[in-house]
Design a protein that fits this description.
2 copies of one chain form a homodimer.
Chain A (H helix, E strand, L loop, with lengths): L15 H9 L5 E2 L12 H13 L14 H13 L9 E4 L1 H13 L5 E4 L5 H9 L3 E4 L2 E2 L2 E2 L1 H11 L3 E4 L13 H14 L2 E5 L16 H4 L6 E6 L11 E4 L2 H15 L4 H13 L2 H25 L6 E2 L7 E5 L6 H10 L2 E2 L1 E2 L12 E5 L5 H16 L5
Parallel strand pairs in A: 1-13, 3-4, 3-7, 7-8, 8-9
Antiparallel strand pairs in A: 2-10, 5-6, 9-10, 11-12, 12-15, 14-15
Helix pairs in contact in A: 2-10, 4-5, 4-9, 6-7, 11-13
Pfam families (chains A, B): Aminotran_1_2 (PF00155)
Protein name (chains A, B): PLP-dependent aminotransferase family protein
Cofactor (chains A, B): pyridoxal 5'-phosphate
Chain lengths: ~400, ~400
C-alpha cells in the first residue's frame, strides 16, 4: 500500500540524534557525541526512596492525574523559579515530558506553514526539526559570544515578523556560550517593542562552573510574564529517565498548550512526577547540583588539556563556563563528517557541527560532550581524538 | 499582548474531560463520569516491587532511552500481541505515553486540513478533538449494535476518500458495544479494496465479562500488517499513572510516527517502561485481569439493578459485555446536560452523551462508569441517580 502522509511530514528530517545513539551502541567506541549526563553520579538511592514514598502514599497515587501536572510538584517548581528570579504561580506552570515536549507544544499552538522563527546559529538541532515540522521557516540572527546582535535582531524582526525567537542564553547547545546581561535585556526590549514572544530554553543553567558570575534568565526580566515562555528540565540536574520538564509564561499561552497537551498524551507519568516531588522535599538537590558542577568542571578541564596538545592555530575552542559541551572549530578545509568516519574507526565519536547550523553550515566544526564519560574513558577517548586531530594536514 | 496563535487552534474544543475532573473534585459528589479504573484493586505491591527491580538494575536505568521504547518491554508486548492473534515483531512496536499519544502521533503524520476521518457515532470524544485539531473533518458512519454498517461505510469511503477509519470495536467508549466478527471483516475488506487505513483503538478488550465469547481484533485479520494500526494501553489492566501504551502496524507508518515522537518528547518515561517490563515478568497479569473482570462485572450488575428500578420504557440501556461503561438513553424530551446540573446538586455525576456525537447529538443520552466506584459508593450514588431519573416527567 502507498501511505499518503500529511504534506508536513516532508519537512521531517532524518534523525541525527538517533544516528548518534546508534554510533554510541557500537561496542568499542568511546562516544563524546550524545548529550548525556554523568551516570556514575546519578542519585539512585534518593530516587529509589522517592518512589518508595509514592507507593507508601497509597493506591490513589497510581490513578490518572491532571494534564497540568501534579500540584505539589508545580508548587515546588514555583519555589525553584523564585530562586532564579522568576516570579510566577503554580497555575502558570505546566509539567511536560521533558523540555522537548515544551518546544513541541509551544510550536504546535503557535506555528503554521510559512511562519518564521528566529534563532541563534548554531542552535539545538531538535528544536529546528520541530519548528520545521510545523511548516515554519527558521531564520538565523547574527551573534557573537555575548549573544544575538541587537541590530540584526531588530532588522530581522522588522523584515520577517517572526512568531517567536528561540534562544538558549545560558551555556548553549551546541556552542556552550553564555549571553551577557545586556544582550538578554536588549532582546527582551525588542520583543516588547514589536510584540514578539521568546522561547527561552534553559536546561543547563544549573551547571555553572564559576559562582562569581551571574546569569539572570531572560524570563526574570519579563516581570509580568507577558512575552517569555521559559522552559527547563530535571533531566540534567536529577536524572533523564524521569522525563520531567516544565514551562512557565503567559497564562493565555499556557492554557492553549495545556489543551494541546491533553490531546497529545492526557498527562505525563504521574508516578514520576510524584517521585520527583518527594525527591525535591527530601533530597538536597542544591548539594547534588554542586557535585555535578565540580565533576563536570573536572572532566571539562581534562578534555581541555588534551585539546591543548593539538597545538595552537589548527583547532580553536572557547572554554565553556558551564553546561555539557565544548565546541571546536578546525581549519577551514576539513569536513568533520568525513573526520567522524575516521574517528569511529579509531574508537571515538563526536558530533559534526554542520547539522546545528541554520544558514551555511561550518563543516569544520564539531561538538564534544564532557559530562557523560568517566575520567578513564575521557583519557582513552581523548588520546584517540588527539591522534586524529594532530594528523589533520595543514594546508 | 495579543497572542497570535496558529489558525488550527481555532479547532480546539473546550475540554469536557477536564470539566469532568473538576466535577469529580467537588467534595460530596459521587462521580460516575470519568473513565477511571478501580483504585481499590490496583496491584500496588507488584508495582512497587517492579520499581525496586529497576533501581536494583543500576544507574544505567536512569539514563536517556530510545524513542521506540525499552526493548525488553517491546519484546513482552509482542508476546501479548501474539496471544491476541496479532503477529508482529518488536521493531514494529512503538511505546507511547498512553494510547492517547498514539492517536495524536498517528493523526499528526496523516492529517492535513480538509482531510476526512470516518468514525462510529457516538465515539471517544478525545479522539474527535485530536482529529479536528489537525484540521480534519470527522464524518460518522451509520451503525448498530454489531458495528458499522458496511453499505454506509462503502458509500462514505467512496464519497469522502478518508485518510483513515477510527474504531473502538471491542467494548466501545462510550456505548460499550462489541462488533461482530463479520462486521470487523467487512470493514477490513473495504479498507483493503479502497486502500484506507484503520486506527483500531483497543483499551478495553481485556475487560471481557463472558469468556465463551470471542472477539478478534481487526488487526488480527490484517496478517501482513499493511492497513491496521492497533493501539492499546496498560492504563486499564495495570495502572493509569504509568502512562504506557503502544501501537503496532505498518512499518512505514510506525517509522514516521517514531520521528514525530522524537520531536514530541524524545521518549516516554523509561523508568516506567522498565518497571512495566519487570511487572510483566514477575506478576501474574492474567490473574489480575481476571480479578478486574469479576470486580467490574459485579459493579456493572449492581448498577444495572438500580437502573432496572427506574421502570421500563423511560430509560433504556444494553447490558455491556465488557469495558467500563453503561450507555443510557432517556425519553426524547430530556436534555441530560440540564439533568447533570440537577444531579450534581444531589451529589452524583455522569457524562451527558451529546459530546460523544459526530452528527446531531442525542441530548437524551448519558454515560455512567461502573469501574471506579466501590460498592458502597455505587449504592449511594445510584440511589441518588435513580431518584433523579424516576422524577423525570413522562411527557
Amino acid at each position: 500500500m502507498n501511505y499518503s502522509f500529511a504534506p508536513l511530514t516532508k519537512n521531517y528530517e532524518s534523525s541525527a540524534v538517533r544516528d548518534i545513539l546508534a554510533v554510541i551502541q557500537q561496542g568499542n567506541v568511546i562516544s563524546f557525541a550524545g548529550g548525556l549526563p554523568a551516570e556514575d553520579i546519578f542519585p539512585i538511592d534518593a530516587v529509589k526512596s522517592a518512589y518508595e514514598k509514592v507507593f507508601a502514599s497509597g493506591k490513589g497515587s497510581l490513578q490518572y492525574g491532571a494534564t497540568e501536572g501534579f500540584k505539589p510538584l508545580r508548587d515546588a517548581i514555583q519555589e525553584k523559579m523564585e530562586r532564579k528570579g522568576i516570579f510566577t504561580n503554580p497555575d502558570k506552570i505546566l509539567v511536560t515530558t521533558g523540555s522537548q515536549q515544551t518546544i513541541d507544544l509551544f510550536s504546535r499552538v503557535m506555528l503554521a506553514p510559512g511562519d518564521i522563527v528566529l534563532t541563534e546559529d548554531p542552535t539545538y538541532l531538535a528544536a529546528l526539526q520541530v519548528f520545521r515540522s510545523y511548516g515554519a521557516s527558521v531564520v538565523a540572527v547574527k551573534g557573537d559570544e555575548h549573544g544575538m546582535n541587537p541590530e540584526d535582531l531588530k532588522a530581522k524582526i522588522e523584515q520577517y515578523k517572526p512568531k517567536f525567537v528561540y534562544v538558549i542564553p545560558t551555556f548553549s547547545n551546541p556552542d556552550g556560550k553564555a549571553w551577557s546581561a545586556e544582550r538578554r535585556q536588549q532582546l527582551l526590549k525588542l520583543c516588547y517593542q514589536f510584540d514578539v514572544l521568546v522561547l527561552e530554553d534553559d536546561p543547563y543553567s544549573d551547571i555553572q562552573f564559576h559562582q562569581d558570575e551571574v546569569y539572570h534568565p531572560i524570563a526574570s526580566y519579563d516581570k509580568e510574564q507577558t512575552h517569555v515562555l521559559y522552559t527547563s528540565t530535571f533531566s540534567k540536574s536529577v536524572v533523564p529517565a524521569l522525563r520531567t520538564g516544565w514551562v512557565t509564561g503567559p497564562a493565555e499561552v499556557l492554557e492553549m498548550m495545556t489543551q494541546a497537551k491533553q490531546m497529545n498524551d492526557l498527562h505525563s507519568s504521574s508516578i514520576d512526577q510524584q517521585a520527583l516531588y518527594h525527591l525535591l522535599c527530601d533530597f538536597d538537590l542544591e548539594a547534588h547540583i554542586k557535585l555535578i558542577r565540580s565533576v563536570y568542571y573536572e572532566r571539562m578541564t581534562m578534555m581541555k588539556e588534551y585539546l591543548n596538545q593539538v597545538g595552537p592555530g589548527l583547532f580553536s575552542w572557547k572554554e565553556p563556563k558551564g553546561g555539557m559541551f565544548i565546541w571546536v572549530e578546525g581549519p577551514k578545509h576539513i569536513d568533520t563528517t568525513v573526520l567522524l568516519a575516521e574517528a569511529v574507526k579509531k574508537g571515538v565519536a563526536f558530533v559534526p557541527g554542520a547539522q546545528f547550523y541554520v544558514n551555511e553550515p561550518k563543516l569544520n566544526t564539531f561538538r564534544i560532550n564532557f559530562s557523560h564519560s568517566t575520567p578513564d574513558k575521557i583519557k582513552l577517548g581523548m588520546d584517540r581524538l588527539v591522534d586524529i586531530l594532530t594528523s589533520v594536514p595543514v594546508v
